Amino acid sequence: MVINLGGRKSDMVLLDENGIRCDGRKVNETRKVTIKAGVLKNASGSAYIEFGGNKILAGVFGPRDVHPKHMSNPDTGILRVRYHMEPFSVGERKNPAPSRREIEISKVIKEALEPAVMLEKFPRTAVDVFLEILQADGGTRCAALDAASVALADAGIPMRDLVCACASGKAGDALILDVNNEEDQAGQADMPIGYMPNLGKITLLQLDGVLTPDEFNKCIELGVEGCKKVYEIQKNALREKYFSKGD
Amino acid sequence: MTDFSIIDKLKRSKILDLLQEGKRIDGRALDEHRTLEVVTGVIPHANGSARVRLGDTEVVAGVKIQPDRPFPDTGDRGIFICTAEILPLAHPSAETGPPQPPVIELARVVDRGIRESGMIDLSQCVLEENKSVIGIFSDNVVTDHDGNLFDTCSYASVAAIMTSKMPKWEMKDGEPVVVEGENVDTPITTIPVSITMGRIGEFILTDPNIDEWACLDARITITTNSDGNIVALQKGGKDGFTYEQLVKCSEISISSGAKIREIIKKAVGETQ
């Protein structure tokens, strides 16, 4: 599904002769990532992430009563995720109603987080994760997943691991880490990866574009390296909130 | 929701006890608004934007400007539409799904204050009369809810509109075509400021926080323009105001409005 994220032209050079990308990065470099934990007063847990030009707020509520009641499960808690873009987050104003794309992304993020969250400890309850895309700049689902995972940890919900995410892909015939908006629109492949670094499990994987089997393998390795870098930033965000006051 | 109303009853008696001593639950004076922080230009993808915090209530507003068809009866004016949404991460009680009546009221009151003030000179937003005009959309999203969303959304939209830049379009073969690199300031005529006050018993509280909000008898939102005139007003809640109370409210809205206007102007970097 194509969504116009920037309204920019696609005839730009994605990779120059020195191997430098359109935004000045090397092929194996991520954009600047900053994460802050605990930014909302009302949410049980929250996080704000800036991933390049992406600006995303994550809020977690729960475990709490399930409404509607028939969704509750006596054996385990349930996880619900809403990924939502603000009307002003993209080039053309986006209709605020959830699109098919947003519903799909909500589902893949939910399934990426479920293996990490110990929902079985909270039967008959729901943990709600709300992801609000204030500004989109390519790779929102990875950035949203990064923020969601920090927000869940901030809410004190038991987890087996953090889930970190970063995309890899192909543009200008080279494999690249952390695909930006221009590369997503005009590049050859975009592969978002969600990864649990301590368990070594990939929990989110999608691919748009064409990769040879060899490129695919390398792309996963490259993406996982990016995820590990994000993981350090996630841990730091939590450390900063809970351990910075000298205790 | 039963647990909420029990807490509200307890809070109400605490709030009332304090009011008898002339105090508010968060230590403010009766006519004192909470700390207002305005940061503009937070969403580079938008034509104008602002993040506003009023106490612990936070709103992000983004302005999008794009060609649109005019309303059938006003073909000689541009379009202005303001929306508001309480995001589900703003409060445990906020839900997804179609907007509920209080949220619809919120959006309409914020829209009306800005529209009725004539803040934007919409006659300058026409590309071809009766056919193509400039549409200005100001979308507010509440990210943290601690009461008085009316004013917070209004300040966010006003700051976003004041800092917005309008792209330039030219009509070619009956279609608007954007002229690259030629942005102009959105034509602003005045700065509307809304002030919401609540009444508990005989006391009038400016900028009620969420606890006070839960036990208001009635509330009123008054918007004033840069000349200190009242341009829009909305009464809400299940009780009323006396004439004397309304006069007092209008005085507060003008004096507090002037203070807020200076804060917004300063944040926006305006000197008008």
Question: What features would you describe in this structure?
Answer:
The complex is a heterodimer of chains A (247) and B (272). Chain A is α+β, with helices and mostly antiparallel strands. In chain A, 27% of the residues lie in helices and 28% in strands. In chain A, a hairpin with a 2-residue loop joins strand 2 and strand 3 (54-65). In chain A, helix 1 (100-113) crosses helix 2 and helix 2 runs parallel beside helix 4 (213-243). In chain B, the strands form three sheets. In chain B, strands 1, 2, 3, 4, 5 and 6 form a six-stranded mixed sheet that branches. In chain B, helix 3 (149-162) packs parallel to helix 5. Chain B is elongated and about 70 Å long. The mean pLDDT of chain B is 92. The A-B interface holds A 6, 40-43, 46, 53, 55, 57-59, 61, 64, 82, 84, 86-93, 96, 128, 130, 132, 134-137 and B 42-46, 49, 56, 60, 62-64, 66, 83, 85, 87-92, 96, 137, 139, 141, 143-146.
Helices and strands in order:
The complex is a heterodimer of chains A (247) and B (272).
Chain A: E1 33-37, E2 45-51, E3 54-65, E4 78-85, H1 100-113, E5 125-135, H2 140-154, E6 164-171, E7 174-177, H3 181-186, E8 189-196, E9 201-205, E10 208-209, H4 213-243
Helix pairs in contact in A: 1-2, 2-4
Chain B: H1 2-20, E1 36-40, E2 48-54, E3 57-68, E4 79-86, H2 101-117, E5 126-128, E6 132-144, H3 149-162, E7 165-172, E8 175-185, E9 193-200, E10 203-206, H4 210-213, E11 218-224, E12 230-236, H5 243-268
Parallel strand pairs in B: 4-6
Antiparallel strand pairs in B: 1-2, 2-3, 3-6, 5-6, 7-8, 9-10, 9-11, 11-12
